[in-house]
Specification:
Elements: E1 5-7, E2 20-26, H1 32-45, E3 48-51, E4 54-56, H2 61-76, E5 80-86, H3 91-130, H4 135-157, H5 166-188
Parallel strand pairs: 1-5
Antiparallel strand pairs: 2-4, 2-5, 3-4
Length: about 190
């Protein structure tokens, strides 16, 4: 691998084809913080890891702009990479990629449902049982709900292939908002 190589074929420039940027990178073993930084950036981007230090994304404007930023960071951290634009993959491989992306996002939606239905709901219940109807408790519940909403927004923005469980997560988030509103109403009463 070069310090930062991009391999592009003429076919990858076709406007209507769904391409697949494949990133292969290598980072120095130490310090681990550099390797973790790149992994976190790629995870935040929504990349699908095929194996260690090999990930893929669908060709889309937003993710590809961010991928360029990340790949420029790799050599600056002492690593190297090869970015290959795959203009076409066999249909069975593309179906596997799409299925893996959908599974990844569905799992994230499911985790959000659990966070809403257990962690958040139990927190509201606990506060109600403690009768701590204070502005501070309302503020903390509001902050937690905003965190859940931001997480839902991130998952939705990276749900490029309509994963299962989005409606469940949306419903759970709305239920959390109702619980918080009811709790807030009690603080006024």
């Amino acid at each position: 691998m070069g310090n930062g190589t991009r391999i592009r074929t003429n076919a990858s420039r076709r406007a209507n084809a769904l391409g697949w940027p494949l990133l292969i990178y290598r980072m120095p073993a130490e310090p681990a913080s550099k390797r973790v930084s790149v992994w976190r950036d790629l995870h935040r981007l929504g990349a699908l890891y095929l194996q260690q230090c090999v990930c893929i994304l669908p060709t889309m404007e937003g993710p590809n702009a961010e991928l360029s930023r990340i790949t420029s960071k790799i050599p600056a951290l002492g690593g190297d990479f090869t970015l290959i634009d795959l203009p076409f993959v066999p249909p069975e491989d593309e179906a596997r990629f799409v299925s893996s992306f959908r599974t990844q996002r569905a799992s994230e939606y499911a985790e959000l449902v659990v966070a809403c239905e257990t962690t958040y709901s139990k927190r509201v219940e606990f506060e109600a049982l403690q009768r701590t109807f204070s502005p501070g408790a309302v503020e903390e519940l509001h902050r937690q709900l905003n965190d859940l909403a931001r997480r839902f927004e991130w998952i939705s923005q990276h749900d490029w292939f309509d994963a299962d469980r989005q409606e469940d997560a949306d419903r759970s988030l709305m239920q959390c908002a109702r619980l918080r509103a009811e709790f807030e109403e009690r603080t006024r009463g």
